[in-house]
Specification:
The chain is an alpha+beta fold. It has one domain (38-174). It contains two helices and six strands; from the N terminus they run αβαβββββ. The strands form two sheets. The protein has a four-stranded antiparallel sheet with strand order 1-2-3-6. A two-stranded antiparallel ribbon has the order 4-5. A hairpin with a 5-residue loop joins strand 4 and strand 5 (157-158).
C-alpha cells in the first residue's frame, strides 16, 4: 500500500494562525498607544519647564511677566496655544525662546481646563497685581499626581485640576 500525504495547511489551521497573529498585534498596538501617551505627557512637562524658564528670563529683564491675552483675545485675557493670542505672547518672549510650544495633540479650539481639550493656556492679569504673577494650565493624557495650583497676589487660589491625588489638568505658575 502506498499512502500519499498532503503537505498543505487546512483552512482551520490557517484561520487559527491568523486569529493568533491578530490577537498579538492588538496587544502590541495597545502597549504602543500607552507608550505614545506617556511620551506626549513627558513632552508637555518639558514644554512647561521651557515656558517657565522663558517667563523667568522675561521677568528678570522687565520686572514683570508678559501680558496675557494680547490685543485680540477671544479668551477674556487668556493666551491660548490654539488661537491668535499665542502669537502675541510668542512675540513678547521671542528673545528668550525661539518658538512657543504647542500641545503634542493640539486641539483646534477649547481650553485645557476642560477635560479632553489639548492646548496650553497662560494668564497674568488682575487679581491684585497684573503681570507680577502668572498661571499656566495644561492637560496630561494620564492622571499623574495632584494639581499644584497657584495663588494670585490677592490670595485667590487657582487649581483647575481639582484637589484630587491624581489629576490630568495641571495649574502651575508663580504667585507674588
Amino acid at each position: 500500500m502506498f499512502f500519499r500525504y498532503n503537505k498543505a495547511f487546512t483552512l482551520i489551521e490557517l484561520l487559527v494562525v491568523i486569529a493568533i497573529i491578530g490577537l498579538l498585534s492588538s496587544v502590541v498596538l495597545v502597549a504602543m498607544n500607552s507608550s505614545r501617551a506617556k511620551a506626549r505627557d513627558a513632552r508637555r512637562q518639558a514644554d512647561v519647564r521651557q515656558f517657565q524658564t522663558a517667563l523667568q528670563l522675561y521677568y528678570d529683564t522687565n520686572n514683570s511677566y508678559p501680558a496675557s491675552g494680547g490685543a485680540v483675545s477671544p479668551n477674556g485675557g487668556w493666551s491660548n496655544s490654539n488661537d491668535s493670542s499665542w502669537a502675541t505672547l510668542q512675540t513678547a518672549l521671542s528673545t528668550y525662546v525661539a518658538r512657543l510650544p504647542a500641545d503634542p495633540k493640539q486641539s483646534t479650539s477649547g481650553w485645557p481646563g476642560s477635560d479632553g481639550s489639548n492646548s496650553y493656556a497662560f494668564f497674568s492679569l488682575g487679581y491684585g497685581c497684573s503681570q507680577q504673577w502668572y498661571m499656566f494650565v495644561y492637560q496630561l493624557e494620564n492622571a499623574s499626581g495632584p494639581d499644584p495650583g497657584v495663588r494670585a497676589c490677592d490670595g485667590t487660589f487657582f487649581q483647575y485640576g481639582g484637589g484630587g491625588a491624581n489629576t490630568k489638568i495641571k495649574t502651575v505658575g508663580v504667585g507674588r
